[in-house]
Write a structure and sequence with these properties.
Layout (H helix, E strand, L loop, with lengths): L1 H7 L13 H11 L6 E2 L16 H13 L12 H12 L8 E7 H16 L4 E6 L5 H7 L3 E6 L1 E2 L4 E2 L1 H9 L6 E5 L12 H14 L2 E6 L8 H4 L1 H9 L3 E6 L11 E7 L3 H18 L6 H11 L1 H26 L15 E3 L4 H11 L1 E2 L5 E3 L8 H13 L1
Parallel strand pairs: 1-12, 3-4, 3-7, 7-8, 8-9
Antiparallel strand pairs: 2-10, 5-6, 9-10, 11-13
Length: 399
């Protein structure tokens, strides 16, 4: 009898093995490499000319003010810091900031916003399909699968030419049914660096509206491409025309608060009443997953945005990060005609025309670490490492 009971019982030992996230595994490889001249362009954090990921001076000042003035660490509620979300509205939404059909709340990073948004969409329509361009950020497909929705992959990028496969993208969206979801990168596409121009955004908008798709915009790098408003062009264009829309936003990058996990989720529907009902579901789902989002990072960002002097200084520091990204891109692009496309792209990431074998050889021979796909962080290295990096890449392309 005991043996029969045991045979019917499954436990932790019966779990299948998990395939580790390749980028997380890459961090471990870098840490284990003792070579002092190693270059890590795999991890997705901004580094300055000295190769450091600094804490912005305005965040330092905001944290000091928070330490001096915060009187309690009692719960804020599932919406988190409401003033934080209120101050983000004009930065993210622009001329749509006053639209009462749009509501937002704080989340644990952009990843938390993505999961929360897809949980809401799955609750509303289990039959919805999610159109995802390939390649995309590694966490997009697992989140879609985790909420029980079906992912439809389409080719987004032509690595050999460094260009978007735009007609394939439009063809995929034209095959969609009303209620299907178009997952879109707001700017600074991760992992390719290739983003839609204004004309392409308009064509995407037209197809999305024509087919009745729900756009889900992931905007994690606003301000890292051309500027805050310029980088939000596509998002705001869709808001002009779409009654239903989801936006996952992150402050982790443009405020350099990676480990504090500062993000927000935004919902738009056809009426304030429908949005309020949807937000009721959002709060319930958030309660089931993390209950309350962490406060410190969002409070620091809120202090910066709520003070005109601090906000002005943040814009200067943000411009400095953006200028470095674009300057390093131009430096790499000038090293070889085959890398010229990197200078026409935006954001922290691009994909090199390297095979998996060439990438692995760079790790072994040169202590240069990047994803096996050739995706690399343009500003993952200090200024003194750029020439060695480009020389090694050019050598690998010739092998």
């Amino acid at each position: 009898m005991l043996s029969e009971t045991h045979a019917r019982t499954r436990g932790l030992a019966d779990l299948p093995p998990v395939h580790s996230d390749s980028l997380i595994a890459l961090i471990g490889m870098v840490n284990a490499d003792p070579r002092p001249d190693k270059i890590d362009v795999g991890v997705g954090v901004f580094r300055d000319g000295a190769g450091n990921t600094p804490i912005l001076s305005v965040i330092k000042d905001a944290e000091a003010r928070l330490l001096a003035t915060q009187k309690t660490k009692a719960y804020l509620g599932s919406a988190g810091d409401k003033r934080f979300a209120e101050l983000l509205r004009p930065i993210l939404l622009g001329e749509h900031a006053g639209d009462d059909r749009i509501a937002g709340l704080q989340t644990p990073g952009g990843c938390g916003a993505l999961r929360l948004g897809f949980e809401l969409l799955a609750a509303a329509n289990r039959q919805a399909r999610v159109f995802i361009g390939s390649p995309t950020w590694p966490n997009h497909p697992p989140i879609v699968h985790a909420v029980g929705l079906t992912a439809v992959d389409y080719p987004f990028y032509e690595r050999g030419q460094g260009v978007i496969r735009f007609e394939d993208m439009l063809a995929a969206f034209r095959s969609g049914e009303p209620g299907d979801i178009a997952l879109l990168h707001g700017c600074c596409h991760n992992p390719t660096g290739a983003e839609l121009d204004e004309g392409q955004w308009r064509q995407v908008r037209d197809v999305v509206v024509e087919r009745g798709l729900v756009p889900f915009v992931d905007i994690a790098y606003q301000g890292f491409g051309r500027g805050l408003d310029e980088d939000a062009f596509g998002l705001r264009l869709l808001l002009d025309s779409c009654d239903e829309m989801i936006v996952a936003q992150s402050c982790d990058k443009n405020f350099s608060v990676y480990r504090d996990r500062v993000g927000s989720l935004w919902i738009k529907s056809g009426s304030p009443e429908t949005t309020a009902k949807a937000m009721g579901h959002v709060f319930q789902i958030a309660r089931e997953m993390w209950s309350m989002p962490p406060d410190h990072g969002a409070a620091s960002v809120r202090i910066v945005l709520d003070d005109p002097e601090l906000k002005a200084r943040w814009l200067v520091e943000l411009a400095g990060m953006r200028d470095r990204i674009n300057a390093v891109r131009q430096r790499i692009a000038a090293a070889d005609p085959r890398l010229a496309y990197i200078g026409r792209q935006y954001g922290m990431f691009s994909m090199l025309p390297l095979s998996k074998e060439q990438v692995l050889k760079l790790r072994t021979d040169e202590a240069i670490y990047m994803a096996e796909s050739g995706r690399f962080n343009v500003v993952g290295m200090g200024d003194d490492q750029i020439d060695r990096f480009t020389a090694a890449v050019i050598g690998a392309m010739a092998s």
